[in-house]
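Worked Example 4.2. Consider the chain below.
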Amino acid sequence: MKFTVLGKGKNPPAGAVKVVLSKGKEDEIVRLENASIEVALGIGERDKMTRRKLMLLPRRAVMAAKAKKAERLIIDLDLFRFPQLALGDGELAEIFAVNVEMAGYDHSEFLSDAKERFGEVKEVLFLSADTKEAKAGLVRGKIIGEETNACRRLANLPGSDVVPRTLSDEAKNIAKRIGVKAKIKIFGVAEMTKIGMGGVLGVGKGSSEEPRFIIVEYAGGKKDEKPIVLVGKGVTFDTGGINLKPDTAIEGMNMDMSGAAATLHALAAAARIGIKRNIVVLVPAVENMPSGSSYRPGDILRSMSGKTIEVKNTDAEGRIVLADALTYAKRFDPAIVVDVATLTGAAMVALGERASALFTQDEETERKFRNWGEESGDFVWPLPLWDEYDEEIKGTFGDVANTGRARWGGAITAAAFLKQFAVGYPWVHIDIAPRMTAVEDEFLAKGAAGAPVRLLVKMLGEY
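Applying the procedure from the previous section yields the following structure tokens:
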């Protein structure tokens, strides 16, 4: 999508759809006497506008334009200056750029009639964005929106297209795009066997596609600065293994690598924006398949940390592969480690589909992540990670069990499991299962939501 900035007094091109605001409750598409079209966004009372509602306005405008098969959209940023939100020019422009880009994306590359079905806004003309801050905000927001959409595309791809080998290729392409400040290593079975990654190897051995461990290092900060390490769950398809998922739960499991997609593209966005920070992305990439060589309930796996994992259920595989990644993260002496994973259906039971589950034992870090979530639009909500929950995942024949003793609190016991391996550094766990796919009233295309790329970029710039 092309962005064009027009200053005051300049005439927009003919045929573009102009966005206006109304006090109504519904959006309207209005044809004017001169054959031009306006999209009137109903916002009700101006003094009741919130930041959350504001983020939806550019999405609503793009969706309306796409419905009319309009290719150009005109947005006057001055119309959206709500005093109660106290947004500067740059921040307002960034919000609009991010959300215009996100609304413009459709998972349509496998459809022969995509343009006829969805429409496409090819250009957005921003009026009054003539300050230095606003122009910089548009550039920054466009990059974040583009990388969020790239994350969505990668997560949406079929499981036959994205396997550990091809996910590694995607990571290589991202590192190549970033340039000389990035270096990448890919561990295969031999390398992982050498360093004792029994968790990744155990989960991955049921598939004909061998597992990989992806390491991307970005030297954007000072040489002696501790890096921020992002760990993304890269289960490229999750059948549940021997504990095979029912048909109602297996659909969409090509997106079980959404954490990997988010961390890789958050890094790409941070590098493109020019965030001066040392960043490491770690992705344990596996396919969880049932076969004669699959790991089984009752197996005991020796993780890289030396702790043994008692397998109670092969469908609780994500935490097992993350255990090795969290152990490996310690090698970088990190300032903080943040893991991102579509980990548990229990998080969806707890929170619905509006927020990811946030886990940390540091109250100040929790507060910061909640604020970054509100500012970015990737909302998170905390769940407890008390030491008492550690009792729930103690193993009988191994050190830790990969499921809790009872069926209750599954998101929490999964986080408690990960905590056993996140040792020696500050740590945050984000369970993005609730935000794996977009909700209808978010005014986004069906499929992956791209969470939490925007939150991670905000964190990388401000932590």
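The radius of gyration is 23 Å. The chain has two domains: 2-129, 153-462. Compare this with Example 4.1 before moving on.
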